[in-house]
Amino acid sequence: MKVEVSIDPSCKDPRILILTDKMTDEIAEIVKRLSEHTVDSLAVFSHRGVEIVNNKNIIRIYAEKQKVYVQTKDGIYTVRLRLYELEEKLDNQLFIRISKSEIVNIRMIKNMDISMTGTIGVTLKGDIKTFASRRYVTKIKKLFGI
């Protein structure tokens, strides 16, 4: 696949054009990734007010007692978005939903215990232990090639 960039001072809005003889899975994936709007950081709330957290620093995002929390190595924050809204905004190459109430950063997973029947025990950096529900086990195994 060739990639071409053309600089035109009169072009104020960047435009992406894909020239191909047929639609392939690879082209469909590229179009999907280009059209997805992901964010690199989140606005979170702490006792100090609003803070901006880079997605790479997020260990997990979870719902508890009708609130949504973002956990980093620096602390736990609240966020006003719902989990499904965060799941849509976050990069699916970096984050995965492991249960109805939790999304984890793939790069923060230390190990997974798949010996338990139906669920996967997940240990995250900072010795945070959590569980992936049966509903998401197939998705997780597929992601990691288990």
What does the model show?
The chain is α+β, with helices and mostly antiparallel strands and 146 residues long. The protein has a single domain (41-144), classed as OB fold (Dihydrolipoamide Acetyltransferase, E2P) (Beta Barrel), CATH 2.40.50. The protein has helices spanning 25-35, 83-89, 134-144, and strands at 41-46, 49-54, 58-64, 67-72, 75-79, 95-99, 102-105, 109-113, 120-124, 128-132. A five-stranded antiparallel β-sheet has the order 5-4-3-7-6. Strands 8-9-10 form a three-stranded antiparallel β-sheet. A two-stranded antiparallel sheet has the order 1-2. The chain is globular. The two termini are 30 Å apart.
Question: What are the defining features of this structure?
Answer:
146 residues, alpha+beta, OB fold (Dihydrolipoamide Acetyltransferase, E2P), five-stranded antiparallel sheet, three-stranded antiparallel sheet, 3 helices, 20% helix
In N-to-C order, the SSE pattern is HEEEEEHEEEEEH
- Output the structural class: alpha+beta
Number of helices: 3
- The pLDDT mean sits at 85
Q: In percent, how helical is the residue content? A: 10-25%
**CATH architecture name:** Beta Barrel
Major β-sheet strand ordering:
5-4-3-7-6
Looking at CATH, the homologous superfamily is LytTr DNA-binding domain
* Major beta-sheet overview: 5 strands, antiparallel
Subunit arrangement of the protein: single chain
Rg from alpha-carbon coordinates: 19 Å
Number of strands: 10
Number of domains: 1
- Report low-confidence residues grouped into runs of 5 or more: none
